[in-house]
Every structure is written in C-alpha cells, then in structure tokens.
Amino acid sequence: MKGHSPDRAIVPADARGSASVGVTSGTRSGLRGLAGAWRAYRRDRSSLIALVFLLMVAGASLLAPAIAPHDPSDAVTFRHAAPMSEGLVLGADGDGRDVLSRLLWGGRISLMVAVLPTLLALALSLVIGIAAGYFGRWSDHVAMRILDMVFAFPLVLLAIVIASMLSPGILTVTVAIMVALTPYITRLVRTATQSVKGLPFIEAAHAAGAGELAIVTRYVLPNVLAPALVYATTLMGFMMVVGAGLSFLGLGTQPPDADWGVMVADGRAVLRKAPHVTIIPGVMIILVSLSFAFVGDGLRDALDPRRRHR
User: Fold this and answer.
1) Would the pTM count as exceeding 0.90?
2) How much of the chain is in helix, strand and coil states, percent to nearest 5?
C-alpha cells in the first residue's frame, strides 16, 4: 500500500541526537509539514475538485432542514412527475415526493454510512494492528488467525450476513460495515507497524529508556496513521456503495426515511415511466464514491515526501 514512507518516518528528537528541540520547534515543524502536504495536494487538480465536490455535497446535506424545498416524506404532487415540472427541479418519485428534498436528506444518511463505519474500523484497526505488529507473539498469532477466518468471506457478503442477523436500520449498516472492513485496515496497519518497528530510531528510543507505551504512541502511531488514513479514505466510496446496497436489499435505512440506496430501490417500480427517480440517486452514489477515491489518491501523494517533491 502506498502512503507514508517508512524511510521518511517521524523520528524522535532524542534518536537524532538533538535534545534541544522543544515543543515549540516540534509544533512549527508539524505546521510546516501540514502546509507542505496541502500545497502538494492542491497541485493535483482532480483531487482538489473531488474534495470541493465532497464538501459541497456534505454542506448541502447538513443544511437539508433549511434548504430542502419540501418534507422528504410528504407527497407534494402527482406520481413520478418529470424534472422541471410542477415546480420541482428534479421531479417527483412514484409516491409524489420531491426527489430533490429526498436527495438532500438522504445524503446525510448516505455520507454517514460511508464515513462513520470506516472511521470506527480505522480506530479499531489501529489498536489491533499495532498490538499485533509491535508486540507480536501471542497477540499477533491470535489476531492473524481471526483475520484469516474473516478473509475467507468476501467483504460485501460478510456485510450482508452480519446485517441480516440484526434488525434493519442505520445502526445495523454501521456495525456490518465496520466489522467487515476492520480486517482489511488491520492487515495494513500490522504490516506498517512491523516496518517501523525495525527502524533505527525505535532502537534509539529503547536505548534512551523510553517505555513501550511512549514509543507506540509517540513514534509508531504517527508513522502508521498516514497510510492507514489514506487507505480508509479510498475505502469510504466503496463503503457508500455497500451501504446503499444494504438499503437497497431492505437491510439498512427503512422507509419512509430516505437514503440514496432506498431511493434507487423505490425507483424500480417506476423505472420505465420515470427513470429519473433511480438515475439521479444512482449518479450521486457514483460521483461521491469516485470523489472519495480521488481524495484518497491525493492524500497518498501529499503525505508521501518522495511523491510530494516530484
């Protein structure tokens, strides 16, 4: 996995022999690093456009209570009204509900399903992966054997199985995606941790008398967080598709609440008469998923010093 390079790892000041570096210097160095990463990110036009698009979608979804023209559950006109008719920009669905309003409200749930389970899986994976990769022995063997069993099932199939065992709803989708995704990020974190563990500055920290917890939190975690975060970001788009699929199958958001997967499912009944009911949320799922992928690629290049200075 490409990302934060181990050979350009975050090295502790005492390991470099510069004990005079203080908190202020470290803070300034960190700010300069962030500024450099942002400059590198801005140079990638596709990633920048994708980020702006995601921010616009997220902002519109958060502001749905204020900017949505109608209640997403109320019928406001006749069934499957065409776009730009009856005063509705995107038309109406098979029950006469405003598609634009449902799209805005549904974006809140769809984005949450993409981001929240992935971040929870990332946090859990950091704990498991670092423990397995750094401490090794029994913790590594137990974690890897459990992950091997989980890897026997495709991610989507595992999410469907988990969701089908629970009551349909947003919480079910969150848990299903988090559990199904954790092994993949954990494997990356474990591999990155093992790479960092063998670097000279870790040995220098041991020689300086640093405890295991201090080494893990101050030196190991910062070096494995970047590649894990990049990987998680690229997965968010796929998780949106998985979440929409679970809702499409009736395992996620339940009517009359709207998310984009539910909207696609509702549009099946009027697909020939009103294809816009399915096409519009389907296109949004595709665009947002691709945007997450582009943002992840941009983060990968921005956080890798070797790529940043090309």
Assistant:
1) no
2) 75, 0, 25
